[in-house]
Amino acid sequence: MFPVDIDKYSLEVLQYRNPSVIDDDVVTNAALGLVGESAELQKEVTKAMQQWLKLFEGSLNLTDASSNVSEMIKKIKFQDQNIPLEKIIRELGDVAYYFVDCCVAIGVRPSDVLSVNLCKLENRYPNGKFDAKASQNRCEVRE
Q1: What single-letter DSSP state applies at residue 14?
Q2: What is the rounded distance in angstroms from the CA atom of residue 113 to the CA atom of residue 120?
Q3: For residues 99 and 96, what is the distance between their CA atoms, to the nearest angstrom?
Q4: Distances, alpha carbon 23 to alpha carbons 9, 11, 17, 33, 139, in Å
Q5: 93, 106, 90: which is closest to 53 by C-alpha?
């Protein structure tokens, strides 16, 4: 991208105007063009908003399901409660469901997310196993 002088732009874009539109209809043509462009923009914005609303909802549900698993672990570890394995499995199923829901919301395959995560772990632990120092000194790629 580069800065554009609006006055020069105004003169240069005139060469792209449809020559069959007579001067009396230029404003009407431009107004109708703006209406059409704004409708296209509205569709794109609506689509993006729906996508991010789905992701937002999925992430909230994922957080809720994950917290349910954490709550069960807390009860087992610190409250000496016996939580049936089947109940934990059901909650982990909810975690998986909402993980997939988030992936679908942003148009990525769950397997791609897992692949990216595996690459991240391989880069973090190049010797192929956990290392406490590497776990603390993470070098994450940011865009």
Answers
A1: G
A2: 11
A3: 5
A4: 19, 16, 11, 15, 61
A5: 106
- Phi, psi (degrees; rounded to nearest 5) at 141: -85, 130
> Do residues 75 and 81 lie in contact, with contact meaning Cβ atoms separated by under 8 Å?
yes
CA separation, residue 56 to residues 35, 80, 116 (Å) = 31, 35, 21
Numbers of helices and strands, H then E, in the chain: 5, 0
One-letter amino acid at 40 equals E
C-beta separation of 113 from 103 below 8 A: yes
pTM: 0.68
Residue 86 pLDDT grade (very low, low, confident, very high; cuts 50, 70, 90): very high
Give the integer Cα–Cα distance in Å for 117 and 140.
11
Alpha-carbon distance 120 to 84, whole Å?
Answer: 33
**Rounded Cα–Cα distance for residues 68 and 141 (Å):** 30
